[in-house]
Amino acid sequence: xxxxxxxxxxxxxxxxxxxxxxxxxxxxxxxxxxxxxxxxxxxxxxxxxxxxxxxxxxxxxxxxxxxxx
Length: 69
Hints:
The model has no long low-confidence stretch (mean pLDDT 92). By secondary structure, the chain is mainly α. The longest helix has 18 residues, at 39-56. The protein contains three helices and no strands. The protein is 58% helix and 0% strand.
């Protein structure tokens, strides 16, 4: 387990890496992918899911701050 959670940039990079592993050479997304994910990545994904779940209760306020709505 990490000492501190991933930063927002690191979380974004983690997701982009997973997407990259599901993208074919021509740039199309594969219809189905088998991934081998190590324990650190699973831990990072679990923390990300937990943080998003907690943030979801404040989604409207976050959108107003970020999008200026």
